[in-house]
């Protein structure tokens, strides 16, 4: 069951200081537009190397859903210098952990290795940015793998129709309402030319952020970055314009799904894009932690421990998007009947109101310290 509302009715004016330089990050741009961030951390002789491309499923043309995700898979199929599966073989040979993920807004490639392997990681990743080389057989093989991945992870999961329907309601006029994987029919209709065009259009230094974090000093890291990424040519990248939803209305979705006996209740509020909220982003991050950030949160104490109305509850704020940001509350009721969940919505609103009235400056400081601690020690 889902109770869905488009806009949050309570706005906070919390003071959140972001002045603490937790990571002492060094930031600079190469002449080709590559945005670089170096974070020195000398606690252990290791390094994290990440390349974030500012492109995802929202940039796909209509009917070509899954292009970004399929390309992510094909990035491990080799280049003109490192053919076939050699990229993965090299990572395994040198004990590096390597993976990638695709979202609506970004595609990220990341490696974790001994600091002595950093130059190797940069050489391989810079090579993939400009020299990806796969043939029709590679494409067909990876296309089937991606299709099977969707069937296994999404289509065979009885709760997935709920999530995909929810996203479509939340973003009815935006690419955010479409699954990152694309639909099965879209995946199999993609062509070799579709995906290679996507690669040449969006994979460029001026459309990426490079992050290097680990046991290396800034000056040396900068030299290596310039050596391996500095000569890659920039491109005229034009991303798809996104619709920002500013309509005020509410919708409710109830779904009874096969093979699911337990209920889940979710309420989501569609808020302004992060570039319009500015410092208010921190307000909502703190609010999510206060209301539903674990077993010490306000809603957990009231609805789970005191009232026994729910067995779990959480809150989250998704702000890392190019479009609207989203605040959500999710809970599992103690009793799985329609009448019970109907009453539980009222209990939830009452608990949220009570929680806001009980929020003190001391509690606020405690929450902020916990958030900062999680950033440091996670």
Structural features, described:
The longest helix has 20 residues, at 136-155. The chain has 13 helices and eleven strands. The strands form three sheets. A six-stranded mixed β-sheet has the order 2-3-7-4-6-5, covered by helices on one side. The chain has a three-stranded antiparallel β-sheet with strand order 9-11-10. A two-stranded antiparallel sheet has the order 1-8. It is globular. A hairpin with a 4-residue loop joins β5 and β6. With 378 residues, it is an alpha+beta fold. Residues 1-20 have low confidence and may be disordered. α1 (67-74) crosses α4 (136-155).
In short:
With 378 residues, this protein is α+β, with helices and mostly antiparallel strands. 40% of the residues lie in helices and 20% in strands. The protein contains 13 helices and 11 strands.
User: How many distinct helices?
Assistant: 13
Strand fraction equals 15-25%
Q: Helicity range of the residues?
A: 40-55%
Say how many strands there are: 11
Q: What's the overall geometry? A: globular
Largest sheet: 6 strands, mixed
Spans with pLDDT under 50 lasting ≥5 residues?
A: 1-20
Helix-strand makeup class = alpha+beta
Rg, Cα atoms, Å: 23 Å
Kindly report how far apart the N and C termini lie. Answer: 33 Å
Q: What are the secondary-structure elements, in order, as H or E?
A: EEEEHHEEHHHHHEHEEHHHEEHH
In the sheet with the most strands, the strands line up as 2-3-7-4-6-5
pLDDT averaged residue by residue: 89
